[in-house]
Amino acid sequence: MTNTPRATAPRAQGATVWLTGLPSAGKTTIARLLGDRLKAEGRRVEVLDGDEIRRFLSAGLGFSRADRHTNVQRIGLVSEVLARNGVLSLVPVIAPYADSREAVRLRHEKSGTPYVEVHVATPVEVCGERDVKGLYARQAAGELTGLTGVDDPYEAPVDPALVLPTQEQTPKESADAVYAVLAGRGLV
């Protein structure tokens, strides 16, 4: 029996798009809109939603700095593996600490995998008004402590690829801005 070489189709370029920002900033909404657009174009896309990851991959972790770091590293590993294998991985995760995000970026750099950091820079007052999950109301009522950006730190990115002032634009405009960055880098 002889082995005939199979023609292989060129693999699509993958990348990680890390959307970081405060709770209720609009990260997941933007990621889902962008994901829908990319899927409609026939691209392989996964949205690694921070809340879903916490329920499954990071179940049992709390919200200490060490646990938050572990959570971000787990998500970063999954995203890098997906991206390295041709998937556009959209990651709407708070990831409040700069050193945790930097470790994820370095993992991508080491494997030669594109990494795009997007700061969903919604002011805490606007996030509190949106309060999608009721976290800000619970914190104000004294039922919750450790809310990122209120009584727990959030270290905004120093040099992200894109800053999205979501209080000044629609979710679609934000998703389109991320798409434009990806296009400008030859990733779509």
Mean pLDDT: 92
Order of helices and strands: EHEHHEHEHHEH
Q: Percent range for helical residues?
A: 40-55%
- What is the count of helical runs? 7
Low-confidence stretches: 1-7
| C-alpha Rg (nearest Å) | 18 Å
Q: Quickly give the structural class.
A: alpha/beta
Please state roughly what percent of the residues sit in beta strands, choosing from under 5%, 5-15%, 15-25%, 25-35%, 35-45% or over 45%.
5-15%
> Biggest sheet: strands side by side, in what order?
2-3-1-4-5
Count of extended strands: 5
Provide a compact summary of the structure.
It is built from seven helices and five strands; from the N terminus they run βαβααβαβααβα.
How would you describe this protein?
With 188 residues, this protein is of the alpha/beta class. The protein contains seven helices and five strands. The protein has helices at 27-40, 50-55, 65-84, 98-111, 124-130, 135-140, 171-184, and strands at residues 15-20, 45-47, 88-92, 115-120, 162-164. The chain is globular, with a radius of gyration of 18 Å.
Strands, helices and their partners?
Elements: E1 15-20, H1 27-40, E2 45-47, H2 50-55, H3 65-84, E3 88-92, H4 98-111, E4 115-120, H5 124-130, H6 135-140, E5 162-164, H7 171-184
Please name the defining characteristics of this protein.
5-stranded parallel beta sheet, 188 residues, 43% helix, disordered N terminus, alpha/beta
